[in-house]
UniProtKB/TrEMBL annotation:
Keyword hit for Signal: no
Membrane-traversing stretches: none
The protein's name: Rrf2 family transcriptional regulator
Keywords attached to this entry: DNA-binding
Stretch forming the signal peptide: none
Family matches, as Pfam families: Rrf2 (PF02082)
UniProt keyword DNA-binding, yes or no: yes
Native source species: Flavonifractor hominis
Length: 145
């Protein structure tokens, strides 16, 4: 399974907001500069995050973006799924009736894909934005970036 650039950047954007908001809106251009990501690309990503209710915009002077909840209340999986959709490695592992394979009823390898799906979900659904903030402070003590 491979996470797209949008998914990776969305996680970096959310982490940046968690690190720098302190109750005030964070301008997207500041995030773009700190994260070395095009502000136009971040606009596309933040639009999806906003539609999903994960961030909200503040207009005018001092405007920017804020998290809608505390960092402890976001999981990495929730953030990634907004941009990536289902994180299943193959459609048969998603738990939905999306498997078009004529062998589905006798397929043994689908069990492998479901185990991979369960392992990925176990990691991303138990890791919070607050956990990433803690890891950031451990890796970059005293950093303002």
């Amino acid at each position: 399974m491979k996470i797209s650039t949008k998914g990776r950047y969305a996680l970096r954007l959310m982490l940046d907001l968690a690190l720098h908001s302190a109750g005030t809106a964070v301008p997207l251009r500041d995030v773009a500069q700190r994260q070395e990501i095009s502000d136009k690309y971040l606009e596309q990503i933040v639009t999806q995050l906003s539609r999903a209710g994960l961030v909200r915009s503040v207009r005018g002077a001092g405007g920017g973006y804020l998290l809608t909840r505390e960092p402890e209340e976001y999981t990495v999986g929730e953030i990634l799924r907004v941009l990536e959709g289902n994180l299943a490695p193959v459609s048969c592992a998603s738990g939905e009736d999306t498997c078009q394979c004529g062998r589905a009823d006798r397929c043994v390898t689908v069990e492998v894909w479901r185990d991979i799906q369960a392992a990925v979900s176990s990691v991303v659904d138990h890791l919070t934005l607050a956990d990433l903030v803690r890891r950031y402070h451990e890796k970059c003590p005293g950093s303002t970036q």
